[in-house]
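Example record

The entry below shows one chain as it appears in the dataset: sequence first, then structure tokens.
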Amino acid sequence: MKVTSLPDAEPRPRKVAVGTFDGVHLGHREVIKGNDTVLTFDPHPLSVVAPQALPKLLDSPATKRDLIAGLGVDELVTIPFDREFASKSAEEFVQDVLVDRLGAAEVSVGENFRFGKAAKGDPELLRSRDEFETRVVPLVEVEGETVSSTHIRGLVAAGEVERAARFLGAPFMLEGEVVGGDRRGRELGFPTANIVPADHLAHPGHGVYAAWAHGQMAAVNVGVRPTFETGRGLLVEAYLIDFDGDLYGQTLRIAFARRLRGERRFETVDALVEQMDRDIVDARRVLSEATP
């Protein structure tokens, strides 16, 4: 998949799906289906127009890119969103971006998509244009619930990653650079790859999870490690099962499969080690039954 910044895009007859697509969930996938181009924003528009209202995002730009590429799209066009772009009216967005810059022949959006200054643009405005066909995709429901990034964020924060995956259409993923720790895990016989999640990204609630990391089965702890007084903030510690290697400085992407238990304090280190052994057995069992 080609990745293009909007100023570098060349006009051609395109089928364009437009949206922020945070999480690239099942609703987004319906919008994207059948299109050769995806048009999205970087950074998220709320980070510019209303930073105080910006929620924790479900994916990084790199994760979003890879998820969209997996849907068979030819080109991802990103809008460098800033205050100048935010000042465009809805009509200017349609004319300058969709018609003149991209040459759209068909435009697909979700029924609740809004765009342009003060979010005054809506699907009806798109339908009123003769330059392209407009496809408006209804909201998608799963298990009687409307699929939305907001709902998925709530599930992830509650540790319900298995249920979140049913709305996402894929496991919830978190990525970050592997950083050095205090080597406590190595001393206990469980060396971990540690990530400090970026503040603007969503993360699962505190607990221990079965997950995939670096192509390996993993038992992952999300939390503050209550058994040890470390003074650290949130840390994501991934023990990669049957893996022997150095990941420091590399970007690690973790795909969460199931929450195994909550985070809790152990009275002794031996009790912690015994529980970690059980966690690894449980993670291996869960993941052997799942598809990475």
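Notes for this example: Residues 227-231 have pLDDT under 50 and may be disordered. The CA atoms of residues 46 and 52 lie 8 Å apart.
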